[in-house]
Write a structure and sequence with these properties.
Blueprint: E1 2-9, H1 17-28, E2 30-34, E3 39-43, H2 46-49, E4 59-63, H3 67-76, E5 80-87, H4 90-96
Antiparallel strand pairs: 1-4, 1-5, 2-3
């Protein structure tokens, strides 16, 4: 089975810090606090809902089925990304196909 590797670069995009934060919150989610840090809760991002592998910062490996969702977010924020097809190993397939 094939997958996609996505390497994105936020520094080379001409986004303001506010837009970078919006992009990251939509993609990876964030932890939010209320009442002066008394309560902490997770606001989900796209990667919380789809199987993925994040080997290092700014790199994501996904199956071909889930790629269009990530591609839409990258286009929405005009993020520079290096995207290539890859062959997945058996261990990767177990992670990326666990919902199916």
């Amino acid at each position: 089975m094939d997958g996609k590797i996505i390497c994105y670069n936020l520094k080379s995009s001409n986004l303001k810090r506010k837009d970078i934060d919006k992009f990251l919150r939509e993609l990876v989610g964030h932890n939010d606090k209320s009442h002066g840090g008394r309560y902490t809760y997770r606001k989900k991002g796209l990667l919380d809902d789809i199987p993925n592998i994040k080997p290092i910062r700014s790199v994501i490996v996904v199956s071909n089925e889930n790629f269009p969702e990530i591609e839409n977010i990258l286009k929405k924020y005009a993020i520079n990304a290096y995207i290539r097809d890859i062959l997945l190993k058996e261990g990767d397939l177990k992670i990326l196909c666990k919902d199916e």
